[in-house]
Amino acid sequence: MELHGKIAVVTGAASGLGLATCKQLAAAGALIAGFDRDEKKLQALKSDLGDACLTRVVDVADETSVKDGIAAIVAAFGGVHVAVNCAGVADAAKTVSKGEPFPIATWNKVIGINLTGTFNIIRFAALAMSKNTPDADGGERGVIVNTASGAASQGQIGQAAYSASKAGVIGLTLPVARDLAPQGIRVVSIAPGLFDTAMVAGMPDNVSQSIIDRMILYPNRMGQPREFARLVQHIVENSYLNATTLNLDAGARMQAR
Ligand SMILES: NC(=O)c1ccc[n+]([C@@H]2O[C@H](COP(=O)([O-])OP(=O)(O)OC[C@H]3O[C@@H](n4cnc5c(N)ncnc54)[C@H](O)[C@@H]3O)[C@@H](O)[C@H]2O)c1
Fold first, then answer.
1. Which long-range contacts (CB under 8 A, 24 or more apart) does 99-102 make?
2. Catalytic residue list contains 162
3. Whole-number pLDDT of residue 203
């Protein structure tokens, strides 16, 4: 799908991978709808991108918030062609720690945002996409990109909820792509390794450095958000990519800690 003049919704738009994706897709000529729950940081995105961008406080875990957010894009811009799911949290806990089981509130929060939140955007964005006029070139109506993680299959200590949520994102990629193929909508997920964002800045320095030194094959550094964003652009533009999860991780193989 050609990006110029298309309408792209990006969640987690205020920071990290989502923010870089907004800038990349805007530079390619798309109109951007940035969703996040961080209103202050959304204002910075709006001042950066100006009229080519609308921003809105949306909690992806909340069905009504997502439904209203997608309706606001259709009202303002006339439709949705691209949806990129980047909103996510990485709250960690051990299955049993200090005589207590994994807090179920933490489990529900991580699954609610990373997995249910991703599916909320998919459901309502796909409904809007299904009303698009098919592209003259190939009949496409939309493209959905989800963010999984290497943790889906190589989760570290403390990542039970996070890994389960991201394995869920990979798991839904094929059936959702099958559901939406008749409407001309493609679905692709990206499984990033370690990227230089606020999420990773929250880790102790020795933990992220240990991942770089011991677990990343080459190049021995964190990924840059723009490298993720460039892959999102490629997925949108390359119509033969569908129903798959792409690793973007410099060959990382995560260990237990
Ligand atoms: N950074 C990494 O190394 C890495 C690796 C693998 C996967 N990921 C995934 O990439 C995605 C983006 O993460 P990031 O590294 O850019 O982190 P980040 O913390 O910089 O950005 C995440 C954004 O999501 C927003 N968000 C959180 N909960 C939300 C909600 N309920 N509704 C709307 N917005 C919400 C936050 O406000 C924040 O702006 C996440 O899904 C994360 O799990 C990141």
1. 102/160, 102/161
2. yes
3. 82
- pLDDT (0 to 100) of residue 230: 98
Q: With b meaning 16 or more CB within 10 Å and e meaning fewer, what string describes 87-101?
A: bbbbbbbeeeeeeee
Residue 136 has pLDDT above 90, yes or no: no
Q: Does residue 231 come out as left (phi exceeding 0), alpha (psi in the -120 to 50 range) or beta? A: alpha
**Atom number in ligand 1 closest to CA 61:** 31
Give yes or no for residue 14 CB within 6 A of ligand 1. yes
Q: Is the pLDDT of residue 37 over 90?
A: yes
pLDDT at res. 68: 98
**223 close to ligand 1 (CB < 6 Angstrom):** no
Q: What is the pLDDT of residues 46-80, one digit of tens each?
A: 999 999 999 999 999 999 999 999 999 999 999 99
Average pLDDT over residues 205-217: 90
Exactly one of 162, 185, 222, 232 is catalytic; which is it? 162
Task: Go through the domains of the chain in sequence order and give each one's CATH number.
Answer: 7-246 (3.40.50.720)
